[in-house]
Amino acid sequence: MGIRLSGASAVRTADQNADINVTPFVDIMLVLLIIFMVSAPLATVSMKLDLPPPIIDGPQVEPVYVTVREDGGLFIGSAPTSRATLSADVCSALGGGDCRSERVFVRGDAGTRYGDFIAVMDGLNASGFTKVGLVNEDIS
Asked: Do residues 18 and 1 make contact, with C-beta atoms less than 8 angstroms apart?
């Protein structure tokens, strides 16, 4: 803390100055930043690991891609479909069985309306597909 002398009157009063002097704080922070920047690369230890390959249980199902086109058209892979038959077509593309526990990917054109895209996502969710993933790639 410091003292602030106020006024030019004959009686001088000394008020406390509660302003923080941040210059020493900034100096210390910059020194610590430089220390950490120099010491961080030295602290990394690399160790070569020879891991076994992953064990895949059961048959692997090819991923199913539901594509929403700019004009509102729906495709499963390259086969056209509609919103009314979307869940049945996705199940048949997955091979039947417990198809609702499999992962389904949804992708859309750059010009696809948001409402159309969300309607497809909601339709899949309402049909019981809980593992729905979004794909961010150029499909044109």
From this structure: yes
